[in-house]
């Protein structure tokens, strides 16, 4: 797969939306706040409502190989983390899915846990600007 092509860029965007949908459905409840975050992500990624509707019908069909670029993989994880906290609650099922996807993206389980803890610590407040970066620094070589 050519990771620089427009086709791959679209596939990556669709993959991110599919993960957001799967995360929202992990606890069997797609809340209003999660739908708002989905709308935000859709707009941010530049996808249409028609594309998102197709993804919502079968989110598992949008699987791709993890991008080779660490920044792109981190962006995928960030979208997933922020969806997890969108409804101000983090379920065990959401956490398990985040660990699974994060590990498949090539991140250490400990780092994923640290980032989930940032989300958990900030459920009802803004995340401090450098909170996530500070947690990630401990895992850089």
What does this structure look like?
With 141 residues, the protein is an all-alpha fold. The chain has one domain: Orthogonal Bundle (TerB-like), CATH 1.10.3680. It has seven helices and no strands. The chain has helices at residues 6-25, 32-45, 49-57, 70-85, 92-104, 109-121, 131-137. The radius of gyration is 15 Å and the shape is globular. 26% of the residues are buried. The mean pLDDT is 91.
What share of residues is helical?
A: 55-70%
| CATH third-level topology | TerB-like
User: Helix tally?
Assistant: 7
- Tell me the distance between the termini: 28 Å
SS class: mainly alpha
User: Largest sheet, if any?
Assistant: none
CATH class: Mainly Alpha
The total count of strands amounts to 0
Q: Rg from C-alpha positions?
A: 15 Å
Order of helices and strands: HHHHHHH
What is the CATH architecture assignment? Answer: Orthogonal Bundle
Overall number of domains: 1
What is the molecular shape? globular
Work out the strand percent: under 5%
Mean pLDDT: 91
- Which runs of at least 5 residues are low in confidence (pLDDT < 50)? none
Helix and strand arrangement:
Elements: H1 6-25, H2 32-45, H3 49-57, H4 70-85, H5 92-104, H6 109-121, H7 131-137
Helix pairs in contact: 1-2, 1-3, 1-4, 1-5, 2-4, 4-5, 4-6, 5-6, 6-7
Properties at a glance:
mainly alpha; 141 residues; TerB-like
Summarize the structure.
This protein has helices at 6-25, 32-45, 49-57, 70-85, 92-104, 109-121, 131-137.
């Amino acid at each position: 797969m050519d990771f620089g092509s427009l086709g791959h860029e679209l596939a990556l965007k669709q993959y991110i939306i599919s993960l957001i949908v799967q995360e929202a459905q992990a606890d069997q409840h797609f809340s209003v706040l999660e739908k708002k975050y989905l709308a935000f992500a859709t707009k941010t990624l530049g996808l249409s409502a028609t594309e998102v509707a197709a993804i919502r019908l079968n989110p598992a069909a949008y699987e791709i190989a993890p991008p080779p670029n660490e920044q792109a993989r981190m962006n995928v994880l960030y979208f997933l983390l922020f969806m997890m906290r969108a409804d101000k609650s983090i379920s065990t099922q959401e956490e398990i899915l985040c660990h699974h996807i994060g590990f498949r993206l090539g991140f250490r389980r400990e780092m994923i846990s640290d980032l989930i803890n940032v989300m958990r610590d900030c459920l009802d407040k803004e995340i401090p600007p450098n909170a996530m970066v500070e947690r990630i620094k401990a895992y850089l070589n």
